[in-house]
Amino acid sequence: VRQAEMSVKEYEEQRTGEGIRKWQTCFDCGQFFHGAVQLALGWACWKTYLGRPHTDGVRGAAMGILGDSLRGSRPEEALPVLEANLALNKRYWSNNEQEILCAQSAIANCLDDLGRCNDALVLKREVYARLVATLGVSHEHTITTGNNVASSLGQLELYDEARLFVRDQLLPVAQQSPGPNHELTLTLLEILAQTLRTNPEHTRDDLCVNQSRPARRRQVSQHRRRSARSRGHHAGRGSEATASLRSHAPKHGSRSGYAVKGAEGPCPPVAAPVLTMEIAR
């Protein structure tokens, strides 16, 4: 706790260091905290900065961290906190669209955790549309959010829309940038494979598209195994409900170094995290 407090102080005074992100990550290994450790630090962070004015950026960031920490084990308690954080952003930082999109993404992930997948999909579509308009279709943040939209479509059994969205919109862009071997591209291939496999109305031609690429299937399989190994708890092993591209997290956010898990900017995460459907082995 003391290390995190000093990191925030350093950022406020000198604009150096990692700021409030240190409430979320280990000083030794840099991994994001999970489980009981994450929850305890989330509450400690909020209590540390609760007394500051509502217009203080660190206080707003602390509220987001609390909501994120609650989401893992208590999503029903996390939702009102995340909604309050979104309202705070719209009221005091209405010109900062990145922060607002991050807050919306966190709410969408929480709605998924609560089983409200239709409501989550509405928010994810909105975030994706704004990222396309502001960052372009080829930006990593946009593709990351597109991954989330595709996963939600699959979960809601909207197989045809998911297949067309991934195959015709996301994959061509992802294969050019960031590239065919990038984690985002492999995740898209994994989602497409799962969509084709679970769709009861798939055709033989649909399946043959993937069967003709054994090398690519091996890459996806290796990606899935690496992702499974990396999803252990930092304080005790376990598995996460969502996977996030944490390697892209920034050192600073626009509100005194606040970084949402999962991406440099608007993202799913914590995190905004990327939701991927597990392929049956």
Give an overview in words.
This protein is an all-alpha fold and 281 residues long. The chain is built from eleven helices and no strands. The chain has helices spanning 2-14, 35-49, 57-71, 75-92, 97-113, 117-134, 140-155, 159-176, 183-198, 204-211, 214-230. α8 (159-176) runs antiparallel to α9 (183-198) and α9 packs across α11. The longest helix has 18 residues, at 75-92. The radius of gyration is 19 Å and the shape is elongated. The N and C termini lie far apart (41 Å). Mean pLDDT is 77; it is low at 231-281.
Q: What assembly state would you assign to the polypeptide chains in this entry? A: single chain
Query: What Rg is obtained from the alpha carbons, in whole angstroms?
Result: 19 Å
Could you tell me the number of beta strands? 0
Terminal Cα span: 41 Å
Mean pLDDT: 77
Shape: elongated
Strand percentage: under 5%
Which percent bin holds the helix content? Answer: 55-70%
| Tally of separate helices | 11
Structural class: mainly alpha
Q: What's the main sheet like?
A: none
Topology pattern, helix = H, strand = E: HHHHHHHHHHH
Low-confidence stretches: 231-281
